[in-house]
């Protein structure tokens, strides 16, 4: 009898060391994603249509994304970053191949992980590609610009179908994006427009992506999205953009450095955080510089678990350009 019990115990231990049950393995991976599905809606043939499925590693262990595959050629996908440490982000970028297909199309994207455990997560995309409208170029590409610097781009719109087709309105996703629409031709069921897009204000720093909405007089599919994208450079940047302070014990002190840069010389006036567990070494009031290296010291309190803080840096430049960064810590090694 005792031999049977020992054999049963060894079997249970062996199964446990192989990893968690399949259901929980899938669940830990799914929890990292902000969303598991996306509807592109109605898009025109040839238009650029992309969506980033963002995921964040909330665990102490490193996460490794092995691959991603698509069930349909209407959608391709890529991984922006395969290895993720604690609190680091990646994205599965789904590209809807509007130049190859028309009509209703959808796909399942299967994301495969092998660390810390094996898991697969299915992401769903869908949409409808119409062939009677063409954008040229396929998106509004602002390029890489400094925030607040005016930029102008033009898009030609060509429609084939009804004689009375019209674009009634262009809705902008941001107050800094101004639009002007001019009808340039109409004949034999074809209509031509030229859309001018101007960036005349402060767009958010970093990679910017959003959609202008063209409202038409179509009865069913009345709205057409037009992608606007670009990389907006802030007047001041902080590196790293997010700061992982590490896995620390209560009372432990950790010091990290961040680099603050600007295109023109500046002074740092003050540094603050939304918690009293930080110590900052503010640079002395000497000659302005384009680069400052700032030591940031974190002293872990009694609260355990994953903690997040916001650190704000005030400079003598335009206050609207003052940078901030997010700092993370895992206190007590709690997962």
Secondary structure layout plus pairing:
Layout: H1 2-17, H2 22-30, E1 37-44, E2 50-56, E3 63-70, E4 75-79, E5 83-84, E6 89-96, E7 103-115, E8 119-130, E9 133-136, E10 140-146, E11 151-160, E12 167-171, E13 177-187, E14 190-199, E15 206-216, E16 223-233, E17 236-239, E18 242-248, E19 253-266, E20 268-273, E21 278-280, E22 289-299, E23 305-315, E24 324-331
Parallel strand pairs: 1-8, 10-16, 18-24
Antiparallel strand pairs: 2-6, 3-5, 3-7, 4-6, 7-8, 9-11, 11-14, 12-15, 13-14, 15-16, 17-19, 19-22, 20-23, 21-22, 23-24
Account of the 3D structure:
This protein has 335 residues and is mainly beta. The protein contains two helices and 24 strands. Strands 1-8-7-3-5 form a five-stranded mixed β-sheet. The chain has a four-stranded antiparallel β-sheet with strand order 9-11-14-13, with no helix packed on it. Strand 13 and strand 14 (190-199) form a beta hairpin. Residues 1-23 have low confidence and may be disordered.
Note the main attributes of this structure.
2 helices; single chain; mainly beta; about 60% strand; 4-stranded antiparallel beta sheet; disordered N terminus; about 325 residues
Shape: flat
Supply Rg.
Answer: 26 Å
- Proportion of residues in β-strands: over 45%
Helix proportion: under 10%
Largest sheet: 5 strands, mixed
Number of strands: 24
| N to C succession of SSEs | HHEEEEEEEEEEEEEEEEEEEEEEEE
> How many angstroms separate the termini?
39 Å
Unreliably modeled segments: 1-23
Give the structural class: mainly beta
Q: In which order are the strands of the major sheet placed? A: 1-8-7-3-5
SS field, number of helical segments: 2
What's the overall average pLDDT, rounded? 87
């Amino acid at each position: 009898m005792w031999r049977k019990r020992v054999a049963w115990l060894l079997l249970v231990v062996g199964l446990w060391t192989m990893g968690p049950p399949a259901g929980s393995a899938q669940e830990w991976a799914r929890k990292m994603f902000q969303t598991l599905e996306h509807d592109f809606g109605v898009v025109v043939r040839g238009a650029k249509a992309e969506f980033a499925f963002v995921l964040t590693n909330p665990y102490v262990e490193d996460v490794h994304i092995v691959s991603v595959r698509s069930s349909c050629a209407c959608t391709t996908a890529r991984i922006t970053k395969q290895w993720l440490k604690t609190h680091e982000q990646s994205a599965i970028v789904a590209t809807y191949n509007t130049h190859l297909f028309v009509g209703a199309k959808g796909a399942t994207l299967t994301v495969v992980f092998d660390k810390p455990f094996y898991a697969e997560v299915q992401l769903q995309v869908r949409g409808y590609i119409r062939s009677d409208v063409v954008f040229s170029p396929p998106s509004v590409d602002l390029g890489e610009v400094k925030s607040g610097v005016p930029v102008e781009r033009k898009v030609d719109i060509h429609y084939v179908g009804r004689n009375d087709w019209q674009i009634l309105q262009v809705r902008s996703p941001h107050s800094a994006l101004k639009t002007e629409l001019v009808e340039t031709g109409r004949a034999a069921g074809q209509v031509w427009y030229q859309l001018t897009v101007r960036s005349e204000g402060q767009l958010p720093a970093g990679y910017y992506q959003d959609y202008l909405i063209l409202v038409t007089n179509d009865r069913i599919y009345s709205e057409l999205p037009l992608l606007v994208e670009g990389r907006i450079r802030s007047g001041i940047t902080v590196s790293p953009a997010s700061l992982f302070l590490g896995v620390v014990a209560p009372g432990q002190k950790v010091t990290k450095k961040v680099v603050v840069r600007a295109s023109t010389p500046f002074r740092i006036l003050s540094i603050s955080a939304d918690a009293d567990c930080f110590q900052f070494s503010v640079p002395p009031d000497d000659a302005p510089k384009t680069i400052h290296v700032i030591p940031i010291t974190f002293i872990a309190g009694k609260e355990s678990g994953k903690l997040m803080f916001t650190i704000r840096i005030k400079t003598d430049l335009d206050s609207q350009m003052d940078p901030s960064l997010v700092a993370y810590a895992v206190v007590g090694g709690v997962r």
